Amino acid sequence: GHGSTSTDSHTGLPRVDRTREEAFAIDIAPYKQAIDRCVAPDMVMTAHIQYPALDNSQIDTRNGDKITVPATMSREIQTQILRNELGYAGVTISDALDMGAIAEHFSQQAAAENVFSAGVDIALMPVSIASPAQASLLPELIRYIAERVKTGHLSEADIDASVERILRLKLRHGLMGHSDKPCSNDVASSAHKLEKRIADRSITVVINRQCLLPLKDKALRYFILTPWGEQANGIANVMAQ
Fold first, then answer.
1. CA–CA gap between residue 163 and residue 158 (Å, rounded)
2. pTM for the structure as a whole
3. Contact residues for 131 (Cβ-Cβ < 8 A; gap 6+)
4. Measured in whole angstroms, how far is the alpha carbon of residue 10 from the centre of its chain?
5. Alpha helices per DSSP H over the chain
6. Secondary structure (3-state) at 156
7. Annotated catalytic, 10?
8. pLDDT score of 8 more than 90
9. What domains can you pick out in the chain, each with its CATH number?
10. Neighbours of 145 (CB within 10 A)
11. Coiled-coil region(s) at which residues (predicted)?
12. Whole-angstrom distance, CA of residue 153 vs CA of residue 147
């Protein structure tokens, strides 16, 4: 449903004001078509978008305010519409929970809990880990979620169903057992070579000031380009050790 928004969910929380009929005719239509095929998609990613026509319920934020629930945290959208109405039986995964649309309004614990409460199977990037010192954040979050299940705040049946869907997906793709196949079989595969040729031919140098490209500095050992500063910092921290 991102097509009719002007906000990037990396930095803010988008809102779609289409009617329910428009939603099913436009935004949901591709999903329905894919799910109705003989081979439905293995996974569906949810979006951090407010869609009042589909669910106008309110949810508490970390600041004490109430906002229209994002689709990622909406049980109406994730369970009632996606699973019950559209008949999707595969694995669902949230968009990254460290994106501005979510991180601005929810703590890491609340974000993960809300996603699981909606019926989503996998909470993507619930914590940001850019250094060894932050490595404990993930097991701490897992313990928190386990405690919320024990106290009845999260449905154990929902968690069990999610685990079963994830395990079935792994089994289907041969990811449960040890494989003796060398990684080079995949890395150097014809498909990867084709991908590289496509990537090489899809880039056009428009301006090359001072003839900096291609890089010629022989003293340069590594050049790693990342879309986000936090990723660069994380890589730098690891390489510095």
1. 9
2. 0.80
3. 234, 237
4. 11
5. 20-22, 29-36, 75, 100-103, 108-118, 137-150, 156-172, 184-187, 190-202, 229-240
6. helix
7. yes
8. no
9. 2-172 (3.20.20.300)
10. 18
11. none
12. 9
Of 95, 98, 121, 158, the active-site residue reads 95
Name, in order, each residue with C-beta under 8 angstroms of 97's C-beta and a sequence gap of 6 or more: 72, 103, 108, 111, 112, 115, 123, 124, 125, 126
pLDDT of residue 12: 92
Between CA 143 and CA 147 the distance in angstroms is 6
Residue 108, classed as helix, strand or coil, is helix
Question: What type of residue is 84?
Answer: N
Q: How far is CA 148 from the centre of its chain?
A: 22
Nearest of 115, 91, 82 to residue 43 by alpha carbon: 91
Across 76-102, average pLDDT: 96
Q: What does the mean pLDDT of the chain come to?
A: 90
178 an active-site residue? no
Distance CA 124, CA 121 (A): 10
What whole-number distance in Å separates Cα of residue 92 and Cα of residue 95?
Answer: 10
| More confident site: 230 or 176 | 176
> Residues 205-217: what's their mean pLDDT?
81
| Residue 126, preceding peptide bond in cis (omega within 30° of 0) | no
**Residue at 32: amino acid letter:** K
* R_g over Cα of the chain: 21
